Amino acid sequence: MPQLNPNPWFFIMITSWLVLTLVIQPKLLSFLTTNPPSNKTPTTTNTTPWTWPWT
User: Fold this and answer.
1) What H or E segment, with its residue span, contains residue 3?
2) If you ran DSSP here, which 8-state letter would residue 47 be given?
3) pTM above 0.85, yes or no
4) Which of 5, 16, 23, 34 is 20 to 30 Å from 43 at the Cα level?
5) Distance (Å, rounded) from C-alpha 1 to C-alpha 5?
6) How far apart are the C-alpha atoms of 25 and 28, rounded to whole Å?
7) Interior angle at CA 32, CA 25 and CA 18, nearest 5
8) What is the DSSP letter of 46?
9) For 48, which DSSP code?
10) Which helix (H) or strand (E) holds 6?
Protein backbone atom coordinates (compact mmCIF):
# COMPACT_ATOMS: atom_id res chain seq x y z
CA MET A 1 0.00 0.00 0.00
CA PRO A 2 1.69 3.23 -1.08
CA GLN A 3 -0.18 5.33 1.49
CA LEU A 4 1.89 3.79 4.27
CA ASN A 5 5.21 4.67 2.67
CA PRO A 6 6.26 7.97 4.30
CA ASN A 7 9.48 8.22 2.36
CA PRO A 8 8.67 10.94 -0.22
CA TRP A 9 6.03 12.77 1.83
CA PHE A 10 8.07 13.03 4.98
CA PHE A 11 10.94 14.65 3.12
CA ILE A 12 8.56 17.10 1.45
CA MET A 13 7.00 18.01 4.79
CA ILE A 14 10.34 18.54 6.52
CA THR A 15 11.67 20.58 3.60
CA SER A 16 8.61 22.80 3.49
CA TRP A 17 8.73 23.43 7.25
CA LEU A 18 12.41 24.28 7.10
CA VAL A 19 11.83 26.71 4.25
CA LEU A 20 8.96 28.29 6.11
CA THR A 21 10.88 28.56 9.37
CA LEU A 22 14.27 29.64 8.07
CA VAL A 23 13.43 31.71 4.99
CA ILE A 24 9.86 32.97 4.89
CA GLN A 25 9.18 33.62 8.57
CA PRO A 26 12.11 36.04 9.20
CA LYS A 27 11.16 37.99 6.09
CA LEU A 28 7.56 38.29 7.22
CA LEU A 29 8.48 39.21 10.78
CA SER A 30 10.69 42.03 9.59
CA PHE A 31 7.65 43.74 8.05
CA LEU A 32 5.32 43.31 10.99
CA THR A 33 5.71 45.83 13.76
CA THR A 34 4.36 45.15 17.19
CA ASN A 35 2.62 47.77 19.25
CA PRO A 36 4.95 49.54 21.66
CA PRO A 37 4.08 49.14 25.33
CA SER A 38 1.79 51.78 26.65
CA ASN A 39 2.69 53.86 29.70
CA LYS A 40 -0.83 55.09 30.28
CA THR A 41 -2.39 54.33 33.62
CA PRO A 42 -5.72 52.59 33.41
CA THR A 43 -8.65 54.81 34.19
CA THR A 44 -11.31 53.57 36.55
CA THR A 45 -14.88 54.42 35.79
CA ASN A 46 -17.15 55.44 38.59
CA THR A 47 -20.35 53.47 38.29
CA THR A 48 -23.50 54.03 40.25
CA PRO A 49 -25.61 51.08 41.38
CA TRP A 50 -28.85 50.46 39.60
CA THR A 51 -31.95 51.24 41.63
CA TRP A 52 -34.46 48.51 41.15
CA PRO A 53 -38.05 49.73 41.32
CA TRP A 54 -39.38 46.66 43.16
CA THR A 55 -36.99 46.74 46.12
Assistant:
1) none
2) -
3) no
4) 34
5) 7
6) 5
7) 5
8) -
9) -
10) none
